[in-house]
Each structure stands twice: as structure tokens, then as C-alpha cells.
Here is the input.
Amino acid sequence: MNYMCKNIDELRAMLDRKAVTSDLLFQEAIERAKQYQEAYNAFVTIIEEKKEQDATSILSGIPYALKDNISTKGILTTSSSNILKNYMPIYNATVYQKLESAGAVLMGKTVLDELAMGGTGTTGHTGIVKNPWDSSRQIGGSSAGSAAAVALGIVPFAIGSDTGDSIRKPAAFGGIVGYKPTYGRISRYGLFAFASSLDHVGCFARNVKDVAYVINIIKGEDPYDMTSLPDDNKNYVDTLENEIKERKLFYIKEAFENYETSEDLEFKETINQFFKTVEKVKELGFIVEEVSFPKELLSAIYPTYMAISCAEATSNNANLTGIPFGVRGEGNSIHDVMMDARTKGFSELIKRRFVLGSYILQKENQEKLFHNARRVRRMIVDKMNELFEHYDGMLMPASGGIAPIFGEKTDQLSDRYLILENHLAIANFGGFPSITIPSGFVNDMPIAVNLTGRQFEDDVVLNMAYKIEEITDCKDQIAKGGK
Amino acid sequence: MPTKEQLKEYAGKLMFDMKEEEYDTLQKEFDVILKQMEFIEKIEGIEKVKPMTFPIEIGHAHFRKDEQKNTLATNDALKNAAMVEQNQVRVPKVVEE
Here is the structure.
């Protein structure tokens, strides 16, 4: 029996009527994880022994996976970096603690791009993560293993983190749902910080209702995280069926300029399908309109993200010295020991990003690069908030195409790259709730739409996403590799 | 465009080193990144905008109550250190003779 391909409602019903036990589900989850490990490499750690629990909740007894940058007491947590390859946390992250208290069963820690800095799933210290729809392609990152584990039907849900698009992009490439809530909605205590002003905890599942179940459990204020929000005391599952007629959505005109004449057929087909989805969304009762967004702001999303995230990352990762924890370096002085630990412990890509962060923070560059990036951030967020005065959400393709083939070159100065491959970071700039929903296929690979809403309106975004999911025919899908 | 020497200096400030060929790759990367950064500079009226730090404006600071709480136990704090002596993390001698 293939239980792990079922959704949370189905698993809950089977557990409650004792048609299956939690032990059996756990067993199946780790067997499937091992079966697919060599081909896709979703896990850093597969947990062999099930921890007994006696809590009762919608998630009790159901296995799930956590990204390996989330602290789990007594369970190896590496952040997929050599410098932390031996790190055994001595405290639990709040998100893990909440899932433990709800009786959900952790079955593994998933591979990420090293220290969550990357979008390809190729930089983790235990190897690359492959796409379960086509192993010659990326699943995307940084929450690569969590996305693969859900797409493969190893677990019904997994936890990730999202600083620029690290949940919502791999969800799109994996044909599953990925959600990043309002900034502060979920505590980040125990999440290894990458860029604190952009970092969010969120989750993957194979349908919107399952996402709502999980977020209900893990949201709420946390005295250990000063940026966490007071709980909105809303049950996101209860509002999924709310009426959406007259809800207004927009898409950005400048993102699709000249797509009809493009020679890139995958790109063209992805956008054609997006517009077909828009028509179906209108048939549901939504009003969807095209709006104009200043092109110079759209082109500045990626450099703004890079400037802010790399600058914050250099500071956040200064604690990785190999002395109080992590892999100890060699040398005759503290300086040499730290230099050796960091030189050997970080991969080349991480070092390049740190040097960029350092460059941006040099006194002579701060005003031009760092502060100006923070100014652009405000301009983009202000423009979004202006649009949100008239619209309930922004509907866009999650990417301009399908998952890239490993080694594929991209023109990083093209409009398509700068806008369509990076607009998801807008939701991190403004802390807006944002969800990716699979919407169809191009060349047998999944494509997706992304819906981003107003700050604090997680219930509205999930409600609208739930309705849009109805017309996609992609609900509860399992990747080809997991069948 | 930063020189290779400058890049080495920045890496040194961050307490790591890179291989020569990695600095070459980094210089090529800077070429693209600085072109992307130009998109930021081109934005009109940018100088009048207040830089944004956090997505949610925090009107007041939250202070914890001044209550004594359990702190990390010594044995927990030392669990991940590679070298420990007399309940402390051991490092190379700091004071030179």
C-alpha cells in the first residue's frame, strides 16, 4: 500500500479508524526515502527510530520532513555545509517543537543549498538534489530536499525556509504547493539565519488544504523571536471555502513583453498556459486585470535581493568559526584556526556570495549599493501596497519556464531572468504571504502560478489559492519518479 | 571593478581564503553583478527614499521582563566544541610570550 502518496485528510481518516498505524506510516516513509535517496538525494539524515508521541491533532502520527537548517535537539543539523557537518543541536527550533507537540512524526532532515544561499539544489555538502520529474533537471532551491521529498510521495508535507523564493520556486519545479506566510507569522527561532530581514519559515504539501493544516499548527507569536507576530487566532482551514466572487487580482504587464515573438518555445508555452489559467480563474468569479509596474523597479529586484541578502549573510554567518561548534580548523593561533575552518568549511559559491556582501558593506560602497538597495526595496513594497489598495492579490507565473537542466546557462542580464525568474522575492521584500500552486505541464515538466497577497491576510491568500487549485487538475499529484 | 587584491582583502576580513582560480571566477562574476547593480543606480528619485530595513515597521521595541531564566547548561554548551579542558572550550594560546 502506498500511504505516503495520500493527503492529510485521507491519512487522518485511516489513522482514526485504525486502518493504518503511525508506525506503519513511518516505516513506509523511511523505506521510500531510502529507495529514492540514491537517485534524487533528498535527505541529509533519514531518522531510523520513531519517537513515540501521544498528542492528538490533525497531524498526529503523520510523518514529515524538516529542512536541515532547522535546529533539532540531538539530531544532526548541518545546513548542508561542511563547516557544520558534525553539528548536533542542543535546542529545538520553535517550528519543530510545535510539530512535536502536535504529534507529527519527524522522519528526516532534507538537503538544501549550502546555508540556504542558492536556488539550484546543487551546493549542499552531501551532493546535488535531482528533480523527481526528470533527474537531468534541477528541482531548484534552496529547500531542494523538502520539495523533492513531497513530490516523490515520501511525506505528505515538509518544512522549508524562504529568503528570496526558496520554497516557492522548488515547489513550482516539483509540481507541488509551496507557501511562505506573512513575515513573522511563523517563529524563526532555531532557523539558521541567512538574511534576517527576508527569512521566512513555510511549508510544502501536495494541496492547499494540507498547507493550511500545517500552518495552523506552526504559526503564532514566540517570545524567543522578537520579529514574530501576535497570533491572528484564525483557522486557515475554516476559511478555505469562503466566497471569492469579485476578489480582484492583477498581473504585471511588463513581465511578458515580447514573449509572443520569443524563440524560446518553452518560455512561450509557459506564458501561453499562464494566460489560459488566467481565463479559467476569471470563470471562477475572480476579476483579473493587467497592471503596469515601473520596469526599472522590476529590473532592480534581483540586484536589490543580492545586495541585501549577501550583506546580511556575511554578518549572520560570522558565528561559524569552528570553535564553540562546527568543524575545528588547524593552526597555532585563534585567527589561524578560524581562517582554516572557514576556508575549508565553506564551498566556493558561499565564499563568493560572502565576498560580494563584504564588498557591498565597504564604507565606500555602502551608500551606493547597500542603502540604495534598501531604498529600492521600499519603492517596490510601496508600489505593491498601492496596488493592494485596489487588488486582493497578484497572480503571476512562478517561473518563466520549466526546471533547468543541470549546467544550463542563463543570460543573467535578460528581462526574463531579471523579472520572471526573480519576482518572487517581492514577497520577501514586503513580508507578503505568497503561495505557488502547480498549474499544468510544458514538455512533461510541471509549471506553476504564484499568488501573493496583502501582509497579514494569510487566510485570504489560502482561500483564493484553494479556489484556484480547483481549476488546475494538478492537486495531489506525485512526480513521475515517485510512482 | 574591484581588483584581485581587493577581493583578497575582503575575503581576509571575512576570515577565509580562496584559490587563485576562484578569485578569477569571482572577478568574472563581479562583471555581471555590477552591471545588474547599475539597474539600482538608474532609478530616478532614489535619493529621497528612506531605506527599508524590515518588512514590518516595528513601532516600539519589545523588551523581555527582567526575570532570571535557565541558561544553557555548561555540559550542553561544550557538547559541540572539538577541544574542551576544565569545563571550558580550549583554543590556542592567545597571549604571546
